[in-house]
Amino acid sequence: MKKNDIIEVTIEGMNFPNTGKVTFQGKTIKIKGAFPGQKVLAKISRTRKDSAEAKIIEVVEPADYEQEPICSHFNVCGGCAYQNIPYEKQLEFKKEQVKSIIDSVIEEPYEFLPIVSSPKQTEYRNKMEFSFGDEVKDGPLSLGMHKKNSFHSIISTRGCQIVDEDYRQILCQILDYFQGNSKTYYHKTSKIGFLRYLLVRKTEKTGEILINLITTSQGTLNEQEFVDLILGMNLKSKVKCIAHSIFDGVADVARAEEMKILYGEDKITEELLGLHFNISSFSFFQTNSLGAEKLYSIARDFIGTTKDKTIFDLYSGTGTIGQILAPTAKKVIGIEIVEEAVEKANENAKLNGLDNCTFIAGDVLKKIDELQDKPDIIVLDPPREGIHPKAIQKIIDYKPETFIYISCKPTSLVNDLPVFIDNGYKVVKVQCVDLFPQTPHVETVCLLERK
Question: Percentage of residues in the chain with pLDDT exceeding 70?
Fold first, then answer.
């Protein structure tokens, strides 16, 4: 077997994330995007001694459980890879992949609880960052998601099914508006152009909408016309904020170097488990509000009583989990690197009448050295790549009774777990919560206790 060989195989199993596997000619072949039971034609892209990687050319025979996708953009858009899989089967795949990953690093027995489904399987997202671009080179302006396996091409996802009708209408009308006035999008290679991203947030419980148009400084926006366009839309929910942000950096990320509020103020308010949280344009908040309630309820149940206990909430975002644990706790201290999120976290603590919460802006690696309190419980909800290797030992050295580790990437979680185990902690129980239906992603809650 060598590179560029074409093989026809039936997929036997799955690895995280979304990678089919099969044994062929004595090697384990990994094929991204393939599902167990599918017969596929694939082209070898890389070979090693005992393994190889391949790319799908064609699905010759679908698996017997596959269904018609619910979205017209499926298989073109790079977003939802699981729409051809029934939801119960999606949950089964996620549960099995996470358990297999965790079992690979844990020798002692632990409790692996059933996966928790999302309350909504479609139209569940409360935030989208749509990109401006074109689908084909020099084609008409598009607005939506990246084309599958493409860095440059953007698909106009007018019929996206993981957001509701308000998002679809906002996308369609704003795209039509800019197509009509010939505004150019920012080209990543030439660094020339005006339009970059359209950030839309909408709360589940309170029905409030925030819209932030992110452009370069290489053009002008008719601000009043843009505001009138949005306020004239027939939306189910109420627009609370319209903003225009400038970002001239080269990174392909939605952020602002400067921001002007065109209407309202830069916040919307969501309700989770009876508490209220103000969310701004760029502050972190779980993208599935109803699913987040499930996630945080499980974390709270894993911890048990917080009465008279000191809690560190590291990578705290807008302070959701810390405040949910705070009502009976002695003290909650949160650390978050995004200053805007910390401002909102402290604002949210006041909003919820919690005077025992303090949130600090800065890098966990540095700020944790400044904390004088001794925690009984540490909650960790780090970025996808996990905890910084230099920070993890500092965190463990506080020797709390309990760690709750919330992870959106199980492969990062299992990189960190052995460090906790080597330092005298035991994995007690693990539970997956599906906050991302129709995609390969899943949240995992892990309870660790000091031996």
Answer: 100
